[in-house]
Every structure is written in structure tokens, then in C-alpha cells.
Design brief:
The chain has 14 helices and 16 strands. It is of the alpha/beta class. The chain has a domain of 325 residues: TIM Barrel (Alpha-Beta Barrel), CATH 3.20.20. The strands form four sheets. An eight-stranded parallel beta sheet has the order 5-4-3-2-1-14-13-7. The chain has a four-stranded mixed beta sheet with strand order 6-8-10-9, with helices on one face. A two-stranded antiparallel ribbon has the order 11-12. The structure holds 6-O-phosphono-beta-D-glucopyranose.
């Protein structure tokens, strides 16, 4: 809808930035940290592993100083489960608690709200060896881990996020490094266990720390029909139910989406649900919804002889025979990595989500992965990133005017880090880290042009997006 007078971003808006532990910290085997499934990744096809990354673990004080200079109001980071409980269950690693306690204290000291993701793709390897999320014991392990980190940090951390991109782990286990390409049937069983685990964690936090807020952080996008053909609209609706609403419906309403459940029945994918599971799901309620948004998808009804030759990645799928087929959207450009660029799509996605759930929303990720060049005088002229983010902020502000309760926006990423499956050269940060895929050099930090731009945006509470 058109707004004659566009209201500004609200006071207290959480101008943030995001990272995740395994992609930014390095120090993969230091100070008592156990191994996670991500630590199995070896360098391949010219792409680095996750052992050093941006070495935030050893540059944390410097990184927080730069955050303060940027003027961040919030910093979304994840806790590595294996730094806290190296084997996933059992002994607690005091040094891990100290690292995150120190980070949280430093953030608070400079006025930055910590937003903590409890688990971001880095399941403890010891749990994976016992079946990972296929094993119901992982539910209890996650709840025990939740209790430890709530007890340690919930006096200072108000905003919590349970599981990052559960939907992408279920749909793309191969590219998200979970160590195995699981069958669809077992992926949905794992998914069910994650629903139960995150619901129990939400309930636990509400019982033990009633002042805190907790929510999920799936990857949510509008799915467009390729045409006005009713069959294409049905394909878009069904894919959206399977990739988006299955997750928010389970987190918010504690139940399975009926369209998805029918798909499960049709394809023998129904998870085993133990007594008490649905009650647990119904008892955990998010206070707000995290949303990772990068790109939209456009789909059509699939041809009868459709073949799928690759599993795709977070923003790119070929389709599901019998349900949908992805097609190019002639109205949208693409990034260097083939993801569509759709700023209006963030407004569409926010409005669709708000009208379904009417909860506050925090954009927990959005950004542009692209090669950057460090000039001889130590600059990075990333005007393409500024342009990308500016357009998304403009649309987010319109979404607020449309009625969306948007409480903050945390672009991916605060600092350059290792992409999930496309290496270090796919950079997202406001801060450049000087290293290559195979040479970590001195990991010196440089402020990109987007750093100065974002600093001005934050200082004006979004009034100046120019
Ligand atoms: C999201 C993840 O899928 O997208 C992040 O939560 C990830 O961990 C980000 O890095 C960008 O994806 P990629 O594949 O470019 O790293």
C-alpha cells in the first residue's frame, strides 16, 4: 500500500549485525573446546576450513571496540555449544563460559545489546556420533545446555534465539556441513526433535528468567508464483508451507501445518511423535520471531517428467517433483553467487509473516555476499553492499508503516567470516579481514566504506539512508 507520510524507524530500534561462532571465532581446538560437526570440514576446491576463520576468539576486544565505533545497538552472535560443553553433555568448560561472559560484559559496557543464538549449525561431534538430531537424547542434551547458558548469562542477555535456520538444516543438510546427506524421512524426524527441543528451551527460559525474550531464527522468504495460473499459485503456496510456515507454525502455535502434514502422509514422511511431544511443542511460545532473509524464490507447477539434479542451497532450489519447480524471475537481478536480489521481497515477507503471526520480528540476517578488494591505502569501496542494504532498509521501513512490528535489523555480517559452503572470498562484513582462502596472513581488520555508511544510518536512527 502507498503511504503519504512514511513514519521513521521507531525509537530503540535494534540496529545490529550478526555472526556465528564457527564462522568467525577460529580457535577450533583451544581452551578446552570440543569438536563440532563443522570441525570435520577440510579445505576443498580452493575453499578454506573453519579452523581459523576471522580469529575473533583472539581479536574479540578489538572487534568489540570497532562495534562501539560503528555505534551498533545490538550484536547477534552464537555460542558454540562445544566451548561450553565439549562433549555435548556432561562436563562444563569454565574457559568457554569465561569467553562469552567477557564478550557479553564488553558489549554491555559500550551500550550494545547482546542477542544470543544458542545453536548455529555446529552440533557437538560427540552427539553427532550418537545419531545427532535423529537420536531423541539430543533433545535432552539441548535442554541441559540451554539451562547452563541461561544460568550463566540470562542475567545480562535479554534476547535469545534458539536454533538458527532449522529449515535450512532440514532441507540442505549436505551444504550446511552437518556431515551426512540424510534421507528426507530422517530429516523430518530430526526436525521434529528440534521442534520439541526448542519448545522446551523457550519454556525453560520463561520459567527461570521471565524478563528475557526468546524466539526462533529460520530462513523465511516470500515464494512468488511465476504466473497468475492457479496451478502456479498452488505450487508457490505449497512450497511456502514446506520451507516457511511449517517452522513458524510449529514454534508459534505448537502444531504441524496441515498442508505439510498431508505432504508427509502422501510420501510416508510422518515423524514418530512420542507421548508428550505435542504438549511440549504447545507449551513453548516465542516472544518474537527472528527472520533470516536474503532472496525470494519464484516457482511454477512442475512438469510431469521433472528431474532434480542438485539439492541447491539456502536460496536456490530446483524444486520437488509433484509440488513445484523453481524458475528465474525476470524482474530481479542476481548476486555474484546467483542469489536473487529482491529488496521489495523483504517487505512482502515481513507483511506475510506479520499477518500470519502478529508477533514482533527481528531481522536476524540479510546481506550481500561478494568479493571485495582491499586497496593499497587500506580501503574497501563496497558501494554495491551499501546499495543492497540501503534498499532493504527502505523496504523494511515501509513494512513498519504497513503494520509490521519490526524491532531491529541485524545484517549478515558484522565482520568478514567464512561462508557456510563458499569460503572466505564470499564476504559480507562491514569490517574487512585481510586473509585469503589459504593464507591467513595477520588477519588485520579494515573498515569498509559500508562501515562509515552504516555508522551514519545508526546515528540518525535510519533517517539518513543516503
Ligand atoms: C544463512 C546462515 O544461511 O546465510 C549463515 O545462517 C550464512 O550462517 C548466511 O553464512 C549466508 O550464507 P552463505 O552460504 O553465503 O554463507
Amino acid at each position: 500500500m502507498h503511504h503519504d507520510h512514511v513514519k521513521p524507524f521507531p525509537e530503540g530500534f535494534l540496529w545490529g549485525a550478526s555472526t556465528s561462532a564457527y564462522q568467525v571465532e577460529g580457535a577450533w581446538d583451544e581452551d578446552g573446546k570440543g569438536m563440532s560437526v563443522q570441525d570435520l570440514t577440510e579445505p576443498h576446491d580452493g575453499i578454506t576450513d573453519f579452523k581459523v576463520t576471522s580469529d575473533h576468539y583472539h581479536h574479540m576486544a578489538e572487534d568489540v571496540e570497532l562495534m562501539a565505533e560503528l555505534g551498533l545497538k545490538a550484536y547477534r552472535f552464537s555460542i558454540a555449544w562445544t566451548r561450553i560443553i565439549p562433549e555435548g553433555v556432561g562436563d562444563i568448560n569454565r574457559k568457554g563460559l569465561e569467553f562469552y561472559g567477557d564478550l557479553i560484559d564488553r558489549l554491555i559496557a559500550v551500550g550494545i545489546e547482546p542477542v544470543v543464538t544458542m545453536y548455529h549449525f555446529d552440533l557437538p561431534l560427540a552427539l553427532q556420533k550418537q545419531g545427532g538430531w535423529s537420536n531423541r537424547a539430543t533433545i535432552d542434551a539441548f535442554v541441559d545446555y540451554s539451562r547452563v547458558i541461561f544460568d550463566a548469562f540470562a542475567d545480562r542477555v535479554k534476547y535469545w534465539l534458539t536454533i538458527n535456520e532449522q529449515n535450512m538444516m532440514v532441507l540442505h543438510s549436505a551444504v550446511l556441513g552437518t556431515g551426512e546427506d540424510v534421507s528426507e524421512k530422517s530429516a523430518y524426524q530430526q526436525c521434529h526433535h528440534m521442534f520439541v527441543a526448542s519448545s522446551k528451551a523457550m519454556k525453560l527460559l520463561h520459567e527461570t528468567h521471565p524478563g528475557c525474550k526468546i524466539g526462533p531464527a529460520p530462513n523465511i522468504i516470500s515464494v512468488y508464483p511465476a504466473s497468475s495460473k492457479p496451478e502456479d499459485v498452488a505450487a508457490a503456496n505449497e512450497w511456502s508451507c514446506l520451507r516457511n510456515w511449517l517452522y513458524y507454525d510449529a514454534y508459534v502455535y505448537g502444531r504441524y501445518n496441515p498442508i505439510v502434514w498431508a505432504y508427509f502422509e502422501e510420501h510416508d514422511l510422518c515423524p514418530t511423535i512420542e507421548p508428550g511431544d505435542l504438549e511440549a511443542m504447545a507449551e513453548g511460545h516465542p516472544d518474537y520471531l527472528g527472520m533470516n532473509y536474503y532472496a525470494t524464490e519464484t516457482v511454477q507447477a512442475p512438469p510431469a517428467d521433472m528431474e532434480v539434479t542438485s539439492g541447491g542451497d539456502q536460496q536456490h532450489t530446483q524444486g520437488i517433483p509433484g509440488m513445484y519447480q523453481s524458475v528465474a524471475n525476470p524482474n530481479l537481478g542476481k548476486t555474484q553467487y546467483g542469489w536473487t536480489i529482491d529488496p521489495v521481497g523483504i517487505r512482502n515477507t515481513l507483511c506475510e509473516t506479520a499477518s500470519r503471526y502478529d508477533l514482533p520480528i527481528l531481522i536476524t540476517e540479510n546481506g550481500l555476499g561478494q568479493h571485495d578488494t582491499l586497496t593499497e591505502d587500506g580501503k574497501v569501496h563496497d558501494d554495491y553492499r551499501i546499495d543492497f542494504l540501503r534498499k532493504h532498509y527502505e523496504q523494511a521501513r515501509l513494512a513498519i508503516n504497513d503494520g509490521v512490528k519490526l524491532i531491529g535489523f541485524c545484517p549478515w555480517s558484522y565482520i568478514d567470516l567464512v561462508s557456510t559452503h563458499e569460503g572466505f572470498n564470499k564476504r559480507y562484513g562491514f569490517v574487512y579481514v585481510d586473509r585469503t582462502e589459504d593464507d591467513v596472513k595477520e588477519l588485520k581488520r579494515y573498515k569498509k566504506d559500508s562501515f562509515d555508511w552504516y555508522k551514519k544510518v545508526i546515528a540518525t536512527n535510519g533517517a539518513d539512508l543516503g
